[in-house]
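Researcher: I'd like a structural prediction for the single chain below. Treat it as a standalone chain; there are no partners to consider.
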Amino acid sequence: MGQSHPVKSVSITYIGGPTALIEVGGMRLMTDPTFDPPGAHPVGNRVLTKLVGPALPFEECLPVDAVLLSHDQHPDNLDNLGREALAKVPLTLTTGSAHKRLGGHTQVLANWESTTLSGNGGGTLTITGVPALHGPEGAEAAAGEVTGFVISGASIPTIYISGDNASIDVVRMIRERIGVIDIAILFAGAAQTALLNGNNLTLTSDMAAEAAQILQVSSVVPLHFEHWAHFTQGKKSLLSAFKEKGLDDRLHILEPGKLQRLDSVKLV
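Model: Treating it as a single chain, here is the predicted structure.
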């Protein structure tokens, strides 16, 4: 594999739920903005209950160069204040259906398509859309369109953001198509609602550990595993699953509101 060469680090500030601020390549990217206080969010004939508010208000996260929005149709991925936040960000990359509903500064990023972002410091990032399946096979008809993302660029770690994906087959496909991935930000928590009769809508803890094995990543950061009542697994089960597979040294469970730096090495 040749010699290993250090690459620039990534800094992540965990805001809560699916929301994190990623600083990489001189840019600041945010995943699924959720900034509402605790409370009930009706969704059709269901209610999603937020248990904990954000560790930081959106204003303390600015500036944000772009939002990577996995989907807009569920309030645990885009709540009321999260929607307001989109207007204060110059670009939101998301699905085609979310673009039709949201308009504004949103831009469609279809599966396997890429776009280039340029920072004020002269650096560039490539953002690639990748598949996500929000439940079991056939879930899209009920759960709607969802996407994941891969961030890449010169001398930076390659980062996979799963979005609300519940399929290990999708993870395998992404590994085959993308190749080397250094850091995986996995939406775990085994979310369940009546929408799909109690089927998992996101990765279980065991599936997150299996995904880490498939991707062969050096670091895993779980998101979307706490702060909402419909998550059925959390920190304890994540720690147990990763330890069982001998991957506990790769798991980084972040403290909300605290910036954490992840260092990575690529083998070339």
